[in-house]
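@channel sequence for tomorrow's demo:
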Amino acid sequence: MFQDLLDANKGVKYIHLSTDEPYYIGMANNSQCQEEARAKELGSVGKLLAEFVSKVTNYLHDRGRTVMFWGEYPLKPDDIASLPKHLVNGEVYGADFDPVFKAHGIRQMVYTSTQGEEPFFPDYYILSQSERLHTGRLGTERVAGIADHISFGSARTQADLMGVFVAAWADAGLHPETFWLGYATGAAYGWHPGSPEAQEGMSAFYPLFYGPNVVNMGRLYQLMSTQAQFWADSWEWTLSSARKPLFGNSDHIFTPRRPERDQAIPLPAVPSPQFLTLDWDWGQQNSRRLELVSRFLMQNDELLDLLRLNLQRVKFNHYNLEVFIAIAQLYRQNLVMLQNVGRINNLLKAAQVAASSNQPARALADVDQALAVAENVRQQRNSALHDATETWYKSWFPRGGEANGRRFLHELDDVKDHVPDRTVDMSYLVYRQLLLPLGEWVGQVQSARNQYAKTNGLPGRRINFDWKDTKTLVSQEQSGDEEQ
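structure tokens (generated this afternoon):
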């Protein structure tokens, strides 16, 4: 296999051997693999990893290639002497490791990343605590963190450095077009550590990447960043029942398996079938959420204005802003959905008042309008997903469950949990909405509505509401959206 790779890449000096996060090496003990016994024989699981790396990389080195690998856990400083000296470590690994790698003759790269676990867009700017629904650690702005790590990290004096490695992962769900600012500034700080200051480096990027005529790109990137963070902050976290629990992580095996987390929001109370009364007031309990939604909707207006303005002004990388517009529309769909849940609650409260005033026809009209708003939420979600998918597929191969007569076996990783792995198609972009039991809620409200109608001699109604259907696009929204 490696010889095929060598033959196909003649003239290339480096080969990247991904030994990243080899969590459970040396633990297997079964008929297919007796790693555990070999690790004990060598003295550590790290030395077993070193043995594997040596076998592969010596073959490549003998044929003129320099191999970059990942010298990390479960390697320990005492295991480094078992590695060939001709390797390059793709990362620095702290004061306990870096001087040992240097003494052994292994050069290293400063590893950094332009993305972590952010949804939709990297944290190039950080959302302030005053604009958050939940308290928590705010984090570090990406470019500032990259600049500091490359320029002033301990590895600059403790390791034999030869470059920087700026990483990002589309399998976490972000479109790779969102990574360029971090890629470019990270590479720049590799050449010129310590200078310029992060904001100046970012400002230098925009006219180089897009052309000289773009305007207010710093504000545009700030809004892209903070809207993504509020998208995540606007929902609650809960233990997941939608996927199997995790076997372990990079540190240890979980006993018992550990459940993952998903996001959810509370839905309004279902009215009682007798008098359409509500047990609690969703709007009152979510007033802060709705206040922030209104603020971020205005910022989303500003963001979309900036994106559309600059789409006409860019000289280079036009598609990049097309992707940003699709992402901004996904932000907006979430904001409008939360606002519409508040509208649904208000309509159900109005129905309760009308029922208590012996106005059953008016009460049913309010309930029907609430159900129509729920259908509008589904249509708006599908429209935003459709537009994003069309934009993504200009540069991605389509994601699907079947092709050329073959069916994809969708088996979830039980060590890591990337949301895009939860679905075989692009619906991962709205995955948390698909988990929301809005379909069941609509069914319960419709049942209460029809029982109340029967009691008051009014006609029932039956609507087909398939919340998990992401394909259906309806050109005309349902009645009940006129107040939006």
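heads up for whoever presents: The chain has a mean pLDDT of 94.
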